[in-house]
Amino acid sequence: MSSESGNSVAFGNRFRTHVDRGNPIRNMDPIVVFIVLVAIAIAPIAFPGFVAAAIVCLVYPVIALFAGVAREFLPTYLRLFLVVGLVLFVLRAAFIEGKDPLFRLGNIAPTWAGMEEGARFALLVMAISGAVTLFFNVATVRYLMLALELRGVTPRATYVILASFQSIIDLGRHARTVLEAQQSRGIETQGNIIVRARAFFPILAPVFLAAINQTEERAISLDARAFNSNVSHTHLVTLRPARPREIVFAVVVVAAVLVAFIGSALGWL
Amino acid sequence: MALATLRGVSFTYAYTNEPALRDINLTLEEGLLYAIIGPNASGKSTLCALLRGIVPLFHEGELTGSAEIRGRNLFDWDPAELSREIGYVFENPFTQISGIKETVFEEIALGLENLGMPSDEVIDRVEQVVEQLELGALVAKNPNELSGGQRQKVAFASIIAMDADVIVIDEPTSQLDPESSDAVFAIIANLKKKGKSIVLVEHKMDLVAQYADRVIALNGGRLVIEGPTSEVFTSPLLNASDIARPAVTDLAEALAKVGRPLARTPVTRAEAADLIRARMKGGPRANRSR
Amino acid sequence: MPIVLDEVAFDYPDGTPAVESVSLHVKDGERVAIVGQNGAGKTTTVKLMNGLLKPRSGAVTVDGESTANRTTAMMAQTVGYVFQNPDDQIFTSSVQSELEYMPKYLRWEEVRRDERVARAVALCGLEQHLETNPNDLPIAIRKFIAIGAILVGECRYIILDEPTAGLDVPGLRLLNSLIDHLQTEGIAVVTITHDMRFVTESFDRVVAMAGGTVVADGPCEEVFADDDVLKRARIRRPEVAQLVRDLGIPTTALRLDDIVHKIP
Predict the structure, then answer these.
(1) With CB atoms 3.0 to 4.6 Å apart as the test, which of A172, B62, C26, C193 could cross-link to C3 if both were Cys?
(2) Which ranges of chain B have pLDDT less than 70?
């Protein structure tokens, strides 16, 4: 028992200082990370061709590596590339008509220009989805919400967003329990589409009923934790204030991207 | 000042016909541990909810009679103030976890954060509660990944941390194994010793008999009997209402039925042991002489 | 023909073992209570019995057939499993339709269906509630609706997860008489429970689990007499059994009706 409580004392102390997530990139202000990633993600739109987008797509793994989240980021991003990126590329490249097709396969006659256009489109989408994925890994929604709260956004607003993410997980988990309960009474959930379709209602009904029945109780138990009190809430977890050089860095990135867009509009690129 | 005074209170939930509480007359004193017992749908949870103002302030319905909480009419309370003075733990542990905190430590701290308590005090307070409830092994865990029993303990800790004078708990041990149930009751007894008033719903009558000061027995929304624990459990009114009693009380009745009654009816194991031991020492005659 | 778990092991998704080298039999008409602390492996063990979980190693057979190649829905005709929370199971808008769901799903003939539903209604005391929406009924009755929906099937083994949680005195009485009746039909009942009084009043055999293994398996009298087993499985004797123990009365009796005669 004494060793257990000893742990908790050590554990509590971590809240006495700003969060240290053990890495300079992950310790950056989530809002700075958000702005920088948005700027990087949309930058390739300013450039013609697919090279800029490809570079951006290659930059993400490097950032992930330095941020120490490569293990989480790379598999997800690779999967996105293979599933979404490849499909987008093939669809675009195959159906853009033009002169000098590279080869013919029935109605499909891809051209070099079409391939280029397909690559640009697919890589632009991957640049944006890579930024989203990386953001979830580096800054996390939780810390973004905290950063927003510390800048005056109400806890109610951040609660809605954070609780929504959690409720998706909770609903999924409850659905698995109900699935097991229904299998145990003989409802088949494996097999062809008709068999599976018959199991749809028996699984969804209890899940949604429970979710609806629990809403009010959740609200009251949140109220029991003084969530609706009018005093300004304390933040047990605090973020280190954004360092000047982080802010300068963000400004430089945003400025560079702006210049690129202006350049593009003026026909320099 | 009484914790609660109910005079002729009836309550019917909106969209239902049958009242959940019927003509309840009851006074609850401060500083005691009350257990509410009764069969299913006897109004136990509704009575708990009423003490905390959840009915009729959150759950709509028709309340008749007068309900005073700590000397003030229920309707005159600011709901936020009432929720701070009376901590409330629901039976279902899955609705108690906020879903927005990453660790159990932060989850327990949520209520204190909301009250605007300075950070260092929050940490000290949570550490105390964690130690008191022996939750050290859980503090670093994600509250959303806990089992039902673990959630129940965390929900309980979260309310205790807020240090309300009065704590209402609907079935604190429904998801717990016997060892954890005993531990939770020991903590509740300790809270009472520190001057808290506690009202709880519990089905485990052996625990109720051991820990409760007074028992409120309900049946079909009506008050069957309210009084000191041993008085209630030995009352013939209980049996007539099909309300469970401690095992040793059932045993005493069975002994009486076979013509070997104990000197009086025990409600705890310790009492029963004393009574039987006395008889064993005194021999069979000691029993007959009574 | 029994349910046989032979040296079974199963891991949680995170890789930690949930049960290890668990071996046990459940024979026709037997009444077995699985007890132990939260996290001892009780739920994993019963989920292995109806094929919800397939063992990592070892074998589970029901009536001689391995669960490995059968879905739980197929197994449900032999092994019925009533979950702890009835609301995970109930989904139709009347008690009657809930009870009729499985026969209709399996396209049974009307005669067979009506006969099985009538039996379940009688055993679970649901006569007055057939037209009612289960959501309007108290939890204790919903528990019996869930049990009834399983009893409509022709299972020879019934698993009850924490059936006494939330039951009042009349509910407990009904549950006990239901379990007695199932035994007369030769149906085996397996329960997971923390309620030791229920165990000793309604079950013949106890399987005590701790840390994913079986620490004791035998008649109630034997298991509850062993202090070491109780300590390892962190379980308690029923209150009155502990009382006679405290008093030093030499008896292994556990049921209140038997203990009455042992007290001087």
Answers:
(1) C26
(2) 283-290
